[in-house]
Amino acid sequence: MDTVEANEALAQKKAESESKEKERIANEKLEAERKIAEEQKALEEKRIADEQARIAQEQEQQQAQTAAEVETGQGLIKGSESGIYHTPGSTYYDRTTNVVQWFNTIEEAVAAGYRAPKR
Questions:
Q1: Which DSSP category does 91 fall into?
Q2: pLDDT tens per residue, range 45-99
Q3: What are the two backbone dihedrals, phi and then psi, of residue 67, each rounded to the nearest 5 degrees?
Q4: CA-based torsion, 82, 88, 93, 96: positive or negative
Q5: What H or E segment, with its residue span, contains residue 85?
Q6: Which InterPro entries match (predicted)?
Q7: Exposure of 114 by Cβ count < 10 A (0-12 exposed, 13-18 middle, 19+ buried)?
């Protein structure tokens, strides 16, 4: 009986050891996954902060440009070579580079023969 009991005790110790090893491996895996999740979260937060900073900078530049245009008396409405006027915020306003005339109001642009964009 002593050998049987010794074998059982040995088997039990082996099972406990294997169980502890599996638990250790599982804990290491969880810790690694947690670190990866934290790194991904930090990267996403940085990306969002960078994007917000970029947007804020663009808005500041736009406001500075608008303020300068108002101070110089130059209107904000662009009259293009194609006979279309573009207002700030419209689809093609920033892309319009062939400006022939500037207007302070839409009425001025229409009176000068310009039409609104179709979009």
A1: T
A2: 999 999 999 999 888 877 776 666 656 556 788 999 999 999 988 888 888 888 9
A3: -65, -40
A4: positive
A5: strand 85-86
A6: Ada-like_dom_sf
A7: buried
pLDDT at residue 22 above 70? yes
Q: Which residue has the tokens 């609104």?
A: 116
d(CA 75, CA 79): 10
Up-side HSE of residue 40: CA atoms within 13 Å toward CB?
Answer: 6
Does residue 107 contact residue 77 with C-beta atoms inside 8 Å? no
Cα separation, 42 vs 32, whole angstroms? 15
| Length of the chain in terms of residues written | 119
* Assigned token pair, 111: 């009176």
User: Do the beta carbons of residue 83 and residue 114 sit within 8 Å?
Assistant: yes
Q: What pTM value is reported for the model?
A: 0.43
Domain ranges of the chain: 1-69, 72-118
- What pLDDT is stored for residue 34 in this prediction? 96
Give how far Cα 112 sits from Cα of 7, 32, 47, 82, Å: 104, 68, 46, 13
